[in-house]
User: Fold these one by one.
Assistant:
Number 1:
Amino acid sequence: MLDHFDFSIPSLGVPRINSPILFSNNSGDNEADFVNDDDFIIYNITAKADDHSKAYRKDNLLEQAGPREKIYFNPGHVHAGIVTCGGLCPGLNDVIRAIVRGLWYRYGVRRVTGIRFGFRGFLPEYNLSTMDLNPHIVKDIHQMGGTILGSSRGGGDRINDIADAIERLNINMLFTIGGDGTQRGALFIAEELERRGLKIAVVGIPKTIDNDLSFVQQSFGFETAVAKAVEAVSSAHIEADSAINGIGVVKVMGRESGFIAAYTALAMNDVNFVLIPEVPFDIEGDNGLLSLLKKRVEARNHAVVLVAEGAGQGLLEQTNDKDESGNKKLGDIGIFLKKKIIDYFKSQNIEINLKYIDPSYIIRSAPAIPSDSLYCARLGSHAVHAAMAGKTKILISQVNNCFVHIPIKLAVLQRNYVNPESSLWRDVLEATRQPILMKNKV
């Protein structure tokens, strides 16, 4: 499998400037160390007993993130730009704060500009002002949800216009905080800047609350999303357990990947049915959701159904509409299930009390919990080190619990999905005791 991936990291040139950070290059001296470009991480850590040892090619290994002894940019000449794109996510302000403080305090960079409302902030027709950033401005923003820069969808396909704006602003490093679409746009922008012969570092920090970017062990905001989803499911369970034939239905985010639903179910252990995009299910029939739900209610007098927003889309009326990010607009599986469940139990002459909860925007706008704040701080710090060293067209990621550089072109090739054959989904099945497949035999 390793031979399929080229993890080579693009660079603007040879770094020749001594870093102002006073770290060490000597192990064993009890001083914090620099990271070298020949410090790598193995991506695939699975192994079999008695397997022959492997020799690894450099491009098959993940380059470790961290401060370099030699940097590419003279800190006094740096003008850094930061942009947040797409939907909101817990931790956006934490990342902004970490980048600003890292540039200012570690490297002495004094020009940091925030681009307002995503990639649209670069486009002349929106006439959006920029925001000067410094440690005083970002001092307390990690305590707030959202992003002080504002965010929006779309605009990332206006590559030439954005490149023109970056030139006019004299920005020489750009930090893009966003998901799949944002980073794909960042890659195209970096390639256009390269075609123009401009030495501008483009470094991404992966933001996707669905946790669906490839080669990213976990995206920031995900743990907060799960924590908030747990609160919603807990409320649904209490409502259901306190009523006659109570049923709680909770819809959480997860367009194509059901990680939030899967992790929430494991954290709660009070969910009876988890529905995710990766595992198809039937509504009707002996092994369909409604029949199984009836058996659960008859046996325990209450039930909780947790559904990811992208689950069961094949059961809904399909449209070709897309949002401004180019994502296909989804049908509302939560409302669909609510109606189906009510109609089914009515046809069975069984009284139920159904409560439907959709906490999506509450989750997205929440401030990051401490574990996420810690993660965001480290992502932002490593992004600064990478840009100062002249790395470009990369994401900062965590793989096998190590911070690494990932080429953007690899991260956006395909989404990360819950593998129905994985230990994660197996654990979900054991926690819920739902059938392995809720499909009727054909």
Number 2:
Amino acid sequence: MKTKYSHLLDRPEWAEIPRHMRNTAELYLLHGVRPGNFLEAVLENDLAGAVGRADHYNRGALAAWVDWCFWCLPSRAWGSREAVANWRGLEGGSDE
């Protein structure tokens, strides 16, 4: 289903995200649904935590995750524990 934010999921960075993680990432972006430990560490800019929690697909895709955060997420949706805790999603009340 297309939404006004679908363009963020059509970017080339999205194609590099492991398929088994796309639903979780989309739910976070659009609705602020808390992700699992790996993605939460990525979003909080916690490299050691992300590497320690990554499965082999995500470990190989860490650069893609950073690209996705930088190019597809609003800056207030990632980068620190506080930003992640406060994010409510694009469709959940956070403005673009």
Number 3:
Amino acid sequence: MKHRGKHLTELLKELHLPMFREYHAEYAVRATQEGLSYEQYLHELAQAESDVRRANKIVRLVKTARLPMEKTLENFDFKRLPLRIRQQAKLLQDGAFVDRSENLLAFGNPGSGKTHLLCGICHELARQGRRVYFSTCDSMVQQLLRAKRDLELDKLLKKLSRFEALMIDDFGYVKQDRDEMEVLFTLLAHRYERGSMMITSNLPFSKWEAIFKDPMTTAAAIDRLVHHSVVMELNVPSYRAEQAKQKKSQEP
């Protein structure tokens, strides 16, 4: 009887199993040589397929997140931070705060390393398979304003809600415009208890009225962020200033 079934390679291609397709013959030879069972042979192939898919997923997540590629924890100088902040940062890397929809708020002067630190944590979250998104405050506000103008603000908020953690860098860098304040508050209200916000700011809470203009709106915004949050205060000298000073001291 003529065999009418598809060739194994064709079947694996149809099933979208590239690692099975590429290595099934090679692994079969090794399985025979090492006396592996059918189950062990299948497990080896499935593990290879899973590893590649996970690696590809992480690449996609990092790309979608729009994170600065150079700002990872591997090249962050933790020695500059107080021990308490180092311990806090280590605990945050497991992403449990995201599971609890808690916010992560980092305050400090320009150059203190808050952006690099939170971006590094975002990279770790992406490596765990979590959906994160990075934006400067100005860029996020402009996205929201365009969506509001085009009557698509709800659509954008829904899209952003798919990210488990939303990082906004340099919170407070807005042009003191009421429309900007309103869309920014709308975003905070929409994310409240639905997903984590990760925010860096040079402005302490006491100066946030400059962002939201109105004392009640300012209090409402802070209340939503602080209710479920981890606050990190990076009261350290500017890394850029230290580097410039060191460079100058080395000049002849």
Number 4:
Amino acid sequence: MRDKLKSKEYFEDFVDERYKLNKNLYDRLDNNQIKIDRIVPVKNLMASHYLHILSAKYSLGIFPNEEISLDISKGIKLLNESMINNQGKVHLKDNIYLNQYYVPTYQIILNYFSLAYLLEIPDSDFQILVNITDRDNISDNLYEFIIKARFPNRVQKRSEEYDTEHSVILKVYNRLRKATKEKDKVAAARLVKQFLEKDYYHKHMNLYNSHNSKANIYCGYWSFEAAAVVKIMGLDDSSFIDNQYYPKDLVHQLPLTKEKKGWLGKLGF
């Protein structure tokens, strides 16, 4: 167990439930039981479920394992199929959209990019994530930092378009973004530490305060983006390695473990 806010049984039930929900939705999609106008949001929900499964598995301590690559691959495929027609982009009026994501969508994409890098998924799957942000004309320096770590020859085509005074994204991720530009690794590590301690857990984050919910929606408050930055930059994380939001085992990789047969195996995952 890595997460102390909930029990082992809680997270096992969480993963079990999300797998069942997605299996049911896959079946309904295959049998044309979902209305056409609901297919995109349903697939987007399923992509979120896979992300939450990944987080809950890490909380359980069974991450990384051999099934993780399948989880993230399915999530990326669903994300690709649901991030269409300006889904998740800031809508001004009529057919006018900004080349920016709403905060919840931004965080989902950032988590997928971070996990994709940390787990060293195949280039083909990583490229799908890049294609999503490219076709949405999203230019974000934190995204690009992770992308270039995987694809060094990547050329950022456009500059960012955030409102520097009011953007929640810039305010929340300011220290982490500064760390990626810092040449002094000690200073960069200090910025990551400050980000984890002062900025990461905030009221705009997905599933904020979910550990206090009566519903089974909490999967862990892991900052996969902080881990990605530390690993890419080769930073010394000793000053924040035990921070409750820092998924240190994804930076200091443990050997892959085989998933035990049982409650997950019965679901065919």
